Amino acid sequence: MGPQTPGAESQARFISQAACGIVAKALIVSGRTQLIHEPRQSVVRSEANASGATSVAIAGDAVAEKAARSASHTIRLRGTWDVAGYRRLSSMLRDLAPDVVHVWDPHFLPAPALLAIVRGKRCPVVATFRHPPDVNGRPRIAAQLVRKHVAEAVADCEFVRAACLQRGWSDSAMSVIPAGCEQRGVESPETEHDALSDDGTVGFDQTARRIVVVGPLSAHKRIADLIWAVDMLAPLEPRLRLAIVGAGPAESHLHDASRAVRRADRVDFFSIAALPQLLDTAEFAAAPGDMDGCCQGTLQAMSWGLPIVAASGGGNRELIGEDVAGLTFPAGDRGELARTLWRMLENEELRKRLGAEAVARARNDYSAERMANAYADLYRGLLNM
């Protein structure tokens, strides 16, 4: 995507809460950037800035703040109840006078607080859901607040849309815009190729037969099931290794789970900086959870040409199809997960066929440009452009 000539739509100002996702072309930015390889986001983010749009990233920690440096503005919130941070955000909103505010994952804090700030600004709010409103036990009161103040609600797949409808959203108020992912080979001037040496991952075993799973490391991802299944298969394939990528609230639990199995040395933990190198060397990726919509980690692996072993619930079936870009198994069935992993491991021709379908689906149905254009059309409709 080349730079856009500034027109009427690119002169409008937009604010996006950085909780997850990518960007809207020439208009808006959003991203919990530690979930996917940041240069894939910053390519489009830089384009938005060049076209005259305004982007704001809300960073919850120093890692996200650094990764979001290509946004026009960055607000650092030091915890859920950072009153000073919210005051800075309110002041910025007043100064920028945005035409549209876009909130991603509105049931996660600090989205409700952001909506409370925006409420008096008299501009339309777009909310994008990537998960059911009460995933991980998040309070439904947040979703109730969102419903009162959102002009357009968007789900990133039919599974999430159906979950939102069950929790009180009206059919007419909830549309679907599939998530998008930059394709492999898209690089940014900001790429830090020496980040891997800082992370200590350059020297990992290149001969291993590696399965990769990408965080955030939350309980609903069911990564502990994957640790168990890989341990069961280890005697059949001595080179088998599991790479767990990312961070999150379940990280310490997963370290404990990896130490509890018989072959703890088969499980490795990596930061997101190692993801491109891991995708280059992995046999395939796994998505054992059943509560995600269009999981960015799964999309990233598909764009690399990796087939997927995924739980049949959530948005996985929409992403990979039935034995189209990957294989599915019943969520929570560890025995069936192990059997499905082995089926993928022992059949190279199957991996090649599913991998080719995976990269085609990522390119044709889940590109960042396709998603961005859909959001741009939504913004134009709100602003009668």
- Within CATH, the superfamily of the largest domain carries the name Glycogen Phosphorylase B
Briefly note the CATH topology name of the largest domain.
Rossmann fold
Compute the number of strand runs.
15
Beta-strand content bin = 15-25%
Q: Tell me the distance between the termini.
A: 22 Å
The major beta sheet can be summarized as:
6 strands, parallel
Question: Which structural class fits the helix and strand makeup?
Answer: alpha/beta
Oligomer: single chain
Envelope shape: globular
Summarize model confidence as the mean pLDDT: 74
Domain count: the total is 2
The proportion of residues forming helix, as a percent range, comes to 40-55%
Q: Strands of the largest sheet, in order across it?
A: 12-11-10-13-14-15
The CATH class of the largest domain is Alpha Beta
The CATH architecture name of the largest domain reads 3-Layer(aba) Sandwich
User: What's the total helix number?
Assistant: 16
Q: From the alpha-carbon coordinates, what is the Rg to the nearest angstrom?
A: 20 Å
Query: Regions with pLDDT < 50 over 5+ consecutive residues?
Result: 1-11, 16-47, 185-202
Structure explained in plain terms:
With 385 residues, this protein is α/β, with parallel strands linked by helices. It has 2 domains: 8-182 and 367-382, Glycogen Phosphorylase B (Rossmann fold); 195-365, 3-Layer(aba) Sandwich (Rossmann fold). The protein is 40% helix and 16% strand. The protein is built from 16 helices and 15 strands. The protein has helices at 8-11, 38-50, 62-67, 83-96, 111-118, 140-149, 158-166, 195-199, 223-233, 251-260, 275-281, 296-303, 316-320, 334-345, 348-365, 368-382; strands at residues 14-17, 23-24, 28-29, 56-59, 73-76, 100-104, 125-129, 152-155, 174-176, 209-214, 240-245, 267-270, 282-287, 308-311, 326-329. The strands form 4 sheets. A 6-stranded parallel β-sheet has the order 12-11-10-13-14-15, with helices on both faces. Helix 9 (223-233) packs across helix 14 (334-345) and helix 12 (296-303) crosses helix 15 (348-365). Residues 1-11, 16-47 and 185-202 have low confidence and may be disordered.
